[in-house]
Amino acid sequence: MEEIIDKLLGSRLKKTQFLFLPEEKSNLDYEKAQDEFIDYYSRVGGVCSIYKYGKVSVCGLSDMDFIVVLDDNYRHRYGVRYDINYFSPLTQYLLIHPQLFISKSLMKNIVFFVDTSNLQKIWGEEIIFEQPTEQELKAIAILLQIDGFILSLPKLVLKPLLEEKINLRAMIANINRIKYAIGRLERITNKKNEIYSIFVEDFSLFRNSWLRNSKDENLKLLIIYLKKAIKIIYSLIKDFSEALDKENYYSSVFKNPSRLNIGFKVAEDVTYFEKDWDASGSFNSTINLFFQSRRYMQFLPLNFSYHLFQYTKINNKFANYIKERLFLNQDLDIKSNNQLEIKKAELINKHIEFLENGRIDGNAIFCHLGYRSNIKRFPGEYRYSNYKRWIERRLNFIKS
C-alpha cells in the first residue's frame, strides 16, 4: 500500500492546485465573529438558544461550530437565512460552512447528531440534555463513526488529491478530524494505540506551526502528513471493523456470501461494502476506478453496511432515502445488538421534517448520510423591509 501511495503522490502533486491558504487570525477575531453570529440569530423570532462546540486550537486554521436551537413549532416567518454569505468576510472565513439548526426537543439528544465536545451555551435558555449510559455512548460512537467513514474519511482526504485541487485549510481540517475517529475507537475498545497517539500529537504540532513556517516548508510537511494520514485512515477502518466483530454488534445471514454485492450512493459517489475487505486492495481499487471513470468509488468492510439496513426498518422519509440509494444483489437477514439504530433513524427523520416544515434549506441539513432537502431559498421569500433593516444593522455592526 505504501508503494501505491508514493506513486499516487508523486504523479498527482505535480499537477495539483493548492488553494485557500490559511490566514493569520487572532482570538479577538473569533470573538468578533461569535458576536456577529449571536447578533443576527438572537434577533430571529423562534430562536431560543445558541450553543457552540469544539475549540479554537489554532487561530486562523480552526473553524467555529454553532448550534442554533429553535422552538419546536418554529415556522419560516421572518426571512431568516441559513447560509453564511451575508456575514462579514471575517465571520464567513471563520465559520467556513453553514451551521446546525435543530429543535429544542431534538437538542436534548444532540449526541446522536454530532460529536459535542466542549459544548457550551453562549446565548438564550439552558437545554436539559438526556444522559446516555456509557454502553449507549459506545453504540452512538459506532454509528457516528461508521457514517463518518462513508461520508468523510477517507473520501475528503483522497478525493481532492485525485481531482488535483486541494483546499489547504479544508485538507488540514480533514486530516485533523482523524483524531475524532481515533477517540471513538478508544471508547469502543478501551485501548490506546501508540502509533495513532504519536500521529495526533505530531500533526497537532504541525498545525500549531503552520503560520510561522514558510509556504514551501508547509507544503513539504503537508505531503508527508497526507501520506501518513491515508495509512492511518485505512488502518483505523480495519481496527474498527475488527472491533465490531469482536464486540458482536452484528450477526448476518446471506444466501450466497461469496457473491455478495452491497453499495450505497451519496450524490455521485458510491461506497461498496466487501466481505473480505483488504486495505491495500481497497485503496488500489479506488485509485484505479477513479482514473478509469473519473468517479470516486470507495470500498469499506461489509459490517459497515449493516446499520444502513437497520435504518430502513421503519417507514419514514429518511428510511426511504436510504432505501433508494442502497442496493444489493440478494436477500439479507441482519440481527443487531445495537438497539439505538432505530432511535437514531427516528431522530434523524424528525430533524429532517422539522427543517423542511420550517423551510430551512438543504445547506442546513448535514450529518444525515448526504440527505439534502429540496427546499430552496428565493429572494422573493424575504420581506424586503426586514432584509433592508438587517443589512443596515449588519453594516453598522461591522463598522463598530
Mean pLDDT: 86
Residue fraction in strands: 5-15%
Query: How many H/I helical runs?
Result: 15
Order of helices and strands: HEHEEHEHEHHEHHHHEEEHEHHEEHH
Principal-axis shape = globular
- Binned, the helix content reads 40-55%
Radius of gyration: 22 Å
How does this model look, in words?
This protein is an alpha/beta fold. It has helices spanning 2-12, 27-41, 89-95, 104-107, 134-151, 155-162, 168-176, 178-189, 194-209, 215-247, 279-293, 306-311, 317-325, 341-357, 384-399; strands spanning 17-19, 47-53, 65-70, 100-103, 120-124, 165-167, 250-254, 262-266, 269-274, 297-301, 326-328, 332-336. The chain has 15 helices and twelve strands. The longest helix has 33 residues, at 215-247. The termini are far apart.
Main attributes of the structure:
four-stranded mixed beta sheet; 15 helices; alpha/beta; 12 strands; 400 residues
In short:
The chain contains 15 helices and twelve strands. The protein has 400 residues and is of the alpha/beta class.
